[in-house]
Amino acid sequence: MPVMDSVKLGKDVRIFQPDLINLYGCTIGDETKIGAFVEIQGGASIGARCKISSHSFICEGVTIEDEVFIGHGVMFTNDVYPRATTPDGMLATAADWTCSPTRVGRRASIGSNATILPNLTIGENALVAAGAVVTRDVPANAIVAGVPAVVVGDVSDKR
Question: What residues act catalytically?
Answer without folding.
Answer: 55
